[in-house]
Amino acid sequence: xxxDASKAMSLEECTVEKRVDxxxxxxxPEGSPTLSxxxxxxxxxxxxxxxxxxxxxQKRKERKQQRRLxxxxxxxxxxxxxxxxxLRRDVAAxxxxxxxxxSFDELxxxxxxxxxxxxxxxxxxxxxxxxxxxxxxxxxxxxQLKQNMDDHDKGWVNWKDITIxxxxxxxxxxxxxxxYLTSDSPNVLAKLxxxxxxxxxxxxxxxxxxxxxxxxAKELGIDHAQLPLSSFVKMNSRKVLAVxxxxxxxxxxxxxxxxxxxxxxVLPPRKGAVAVGEGDQAAQDSDSDSSxxxxxxxxxxxxxxxxxxxxxxxxxxxxEETQP
Length: 324
Ligand SMILES: C[S@@+](CC[C@H](N)C(=O)[O-])C[C@H]1O[C@@H](n2cnc3c(N)ncnc32)[C@H](O)[C@@H]1O
Known about the structure:
Radius of gyration: 31 Å
Number of strands: 10
Order of helices and strands: HHHHEHEHEEEEHEHEHHEHEH
Mean pLDDT: 77
Number of domains: 2
Helix content: 40-55%
Largest sheet: 6 strands, parallel
CATH topology of the largest domain: Alpha/beta knot
Bound molecules: S-adenosylmethionine
Structural class: alpha/beta
CATH class of the largest domain: Alpha Beta
């Protein structure tokens, strides 16, 4: 019970008892009211409670301090800070923009829209706790996806460090700064350019719309590239990744500074990802399941050749310029 509440209660009890006392005697007391033994006891107790207020405050402080000291140490060994606080304090945001293009809403069934929603939630959470968060954009938000967000996660309107637009990404970012990430591109990303805006197709399609993002990028005349998966990873599954995996790989690359570590940090072990040059078993196995189903586990199919055109993101060549 709070101090104020207890004070209010004991005073109220005194008042009630006093009223009983007065009406029982049949006449109002002259001068100060006489208190019953019980009332005096309560009053004394209340006075003691008031006197000890500072002492209690001090004790609470000490207990809090002790709890802080007892908390397990975080990865930095700093001991007295929890990891979320540590990460937010050590954050060095990247200028790189990562756009999730939600313009494919009408191509998806509601169950896949829900999966996309979960993948976006995952992207948001990972970006918030990343040591080098990207400038996160959601564009063309509307239709079923927005409805699902409104229905199941009203808190999205308060999301921080994200730019959410109903407009298409072409209206939000300059054409020259855009690079569409798509596994069907013959261009292979060599490194990331912090001045660029990389676009991820907001689509869960179980490969029913194979090549759609590549075709869109070509139609719009914007740069495109695939992640350099084949150069670093042999997988026993298909190589079209889910939105959150692509997003997380970019975050991991910004943190670790190389693709190999980024891929192996993010790709689910059950996909049998092994480093190129570390045995062929995974590449020979086949696995047709699509991990678009779940945010944390999301690979699908690709036909992109390992020997694609390697391009620097800063000058990602258009397909017609880089085709052999
Ligand atoms: C589930 S995939 C959608 C596949 C869709 N059929 C398409 O044509 O893009 C979700 C998005 O992740 C990105 N993505 C997936 N795998 C990729 C890869 N290997 N390289 C680059 N981007 C990839 C693409 O932006 C893609 O649109």
